[in-house]
């Protein structure tokens, strides 16, 4: 046995201190020249500009982490010239760099790279790289990509990535899908397996269309009953709910006793087409009366799917006992589709000054001439509530047309680099969460923290809460249209939208601002299309309890 050398305490403390000092996130041993290249690559990517001298130095660097950053930066910038240069990096000696190159090509929005990716795939020996190539094909789309993915779903070593890639293709390039009975059969079989294969196959099943001739109800029942992971079971139920002309619903009704709230939520949604069945209707009304708000809101939406006026009368009668504006908004939204005038009159009789989200939605629906008095009263309420909650409320809701906002200037990298060492404490009316930040999206995290520091999020609302999907917050209007006044660029990475991760909400490429979303479930269709910049490191139960109309009381930066 070797003798253990004694190390003085001061040496240990010095080592620990040095380990906490943030340098370039990829390595601690870069030369000053390489460190300067890294900083310039980050800056170029955020500015969406290409200085080829800088990029060629990065792409040719001996360190694979520098080359990885260079290719990912090119992918974020995008465009034909970037994609052409990226293609050469598929032959890099490092599997890490080749995987990053595939990711970069996938987000470059250049579908003419599909044949090249398929060619590189045929000679690739590393499974992790092959999986990233498949995900890139799903993001780029096209019939050629669809045909290739349908073949790869049959291979066990890459079936999980192929399934997610098919789901991505179905989400973003639906018309390129090539659907066959064998594809459905394979996905159902994979959904009964363990871990990622089950989850990814179930995800793909929620995204692809289902011709009625392919439906085997017994196979579906077996798959739903066999799925072990609650997230996969919930997705299978969601997919089942989209099947055309399914006759039996007993397998779904039984899931209402499942211990997972995600499974119960998707079961309620899947029963929309069976509301006229007495057993289903009774169960849903019982849920409205007894379930947690998230489930009760879904039950209201499901019941409102019927054409029966008696159902609306019963829901309206129950509404006087609704203790959450979420339930009122659910009924209001459903009623608007059926009888606009009746919905507006009912809402005006039930809205209260504290129902911020509902107030905002109702004001937008009211005609300025016909409901002038009512609009004035509601706006006064809204302004008073905003002042009480420190919200930055405007005197009138914005017009439906989305205004254009300027792009935020790129800060110095020295300001951005240490961001992942910080945390943010978010106190909501439901409890406290703590956010941590990821080094893969330093600029997005930087802008978020800057808004925390200037108090922007204090009083801001969660104006979009969808159970088993996301809780979206960070705006003050109450109807989801609030904005910080500028846009920031995306920093898409290989991170996956798993429960607890935090993403930046957008309405298109590079349109982020202040609104963020917390993933409440595995949202695989968002991977490679939205920036993930953080994670709820404590208080995820609070995130899961958030309701439509909840708000942030205060948000503050705390040391790591």
Describe this entry's structure for a reader:
- The protein is of the alpha+beta class and 560 residues long.
- The protein has 26 helices and eight strands.
- An eight-stranded antiparallel sheet has the order 3-4-6-5-7-2-1-8.
- The radius of gyration is 26 Å and the shape is globular.
- State which percent range the strand residues make up: 5-15%
Judging from the principal axes of the Cα atoms, what is the shape?
globular
Mean pLDDT: 90
If strands are numbered along the chain, what order do they take across the biggest sheet?
A: 3-4-6-5-7-2-1-8
Structural class: alpha+beta
Amount of helix: 40-55%
Number of helices: 26
**How many β strands by DSSP?**
8
Stretches with pLDDT under 50, minimum 5 residues: 1-27
Radius of gyration, in Å, reads: 26 Å
What gap, in angstroms, lies between the N and C termini?
38 Å
Query: Biggest sheet, open or closed, and with what strands and sense?
Result: 8 strands, antiparallel
Oligomerization state:
single chain
């Amino acid at each position: 046995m070797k003798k253990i050398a004694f190390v003085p305490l001061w040496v240990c403390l010095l080592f620990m201190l040095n380990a906490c000092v943030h340098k370039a996130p990829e390595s601690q041993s870069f030369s000053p020249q390489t460190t300067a290249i890294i900083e310039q690559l980050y800056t170029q990517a955020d500015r969406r500009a290409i200085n080829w001298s800088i990029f060629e130095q990065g792409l040719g660097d001996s360190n694979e982490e520098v080359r990885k950053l260079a290719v990912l930066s090119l992918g974020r910038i995008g465009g034909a010239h970037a994609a052409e240069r990226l293609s050469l990096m598929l032959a890099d000696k490092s599997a890490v760099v080749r995987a990053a190159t595939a990711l970069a090509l996938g987000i470059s929005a250049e579908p003419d790279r599909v044949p090249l990716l398929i060619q590189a795939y045929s000679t690739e020996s590393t499974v992790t790289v092959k999986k990233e190539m498949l995900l890139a094909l799903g993001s780029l789309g096209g019939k050629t990509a669809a045909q290739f993915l349908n073949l790869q779903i049959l291979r066990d070593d890459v079936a999980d990535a192929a399934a997610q890639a098919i789901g991505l293709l179905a989400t973003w390039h639906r018309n390129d899908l090539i659907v066959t009975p064998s594809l459905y059969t394979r996905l159902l079989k994979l959904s009964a397996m363990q871990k990622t294969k089950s989850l990814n196959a179930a995800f793909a099943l929620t995204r692809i269309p289902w011709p009625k001739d392919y439906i085997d109800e017994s196979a579906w029942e077996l798959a739903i009953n066999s799925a072990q992971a609650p997230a996969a079971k919930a997705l299978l139920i969601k997919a089942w709910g989209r099947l055309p002309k399914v006759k039996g619903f007993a397998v779904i009704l039984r899931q209402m006793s499942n211990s997972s709230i995600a499974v119960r939520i998707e079961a309620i949604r899947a029963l929309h087409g069976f509301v006229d069945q007495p057993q289903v209707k009774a169960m849903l009304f019982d849920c409205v009366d007894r379930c947690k708000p998230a489930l009760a809101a879904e039950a209201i939406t499901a019941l409102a799917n019927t054409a029966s006026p008696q159902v609306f009368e019963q829901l309206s009668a129950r509404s006087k006992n609704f203790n959450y504006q979420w339930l009122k908004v659910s009924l209001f939204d459903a009623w608007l589709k059926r009888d606009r005038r009746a919905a507006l009159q009912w809402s005006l009789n039930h809205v209260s000054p504290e129902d911020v989200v509902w107030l905002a939605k109702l004001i937008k629906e009211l005609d300025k001439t016909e409901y002038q008095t009512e609009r004035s009263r509601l706006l006064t309420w809204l302004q008073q509530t905003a002042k009480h909650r420190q919200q930055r409320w405007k005197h009138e809701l914005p017009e439906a047309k989305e205004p254009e906002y300027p792009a935020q200037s790129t800060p110095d990298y020295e300001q951005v680099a240490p961001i992942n060492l910080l945390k943010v404490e978010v106190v909501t009316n439901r409890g406290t969460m703590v956010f941590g930040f990821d080094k893969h999206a330093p600029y997005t995290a930087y802008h978020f923290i800057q808004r925390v520091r200037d108090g922007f999020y204090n009083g801001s609302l969660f104006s979009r809460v969808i159970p088993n999907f996301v809780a979206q917050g960070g705006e003050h209007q109450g109807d989801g249209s609030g904005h910080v006044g500028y846009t920031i660029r995306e920093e898409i990475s290989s991170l996956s939208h798993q429960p607890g991760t935090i993403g930046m909400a957008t309405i298109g490429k590079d349109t982020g601002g202040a609104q963020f979303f917390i993933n409440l479930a595995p949202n695989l269709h968002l991977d490679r299309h939205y920036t993930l910049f953080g994670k709820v490191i404590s208080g995820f139960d609070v995130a899961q309890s958030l309701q439509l109309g909840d708000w942030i009381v205060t948000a503050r930066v705390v040391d790591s």
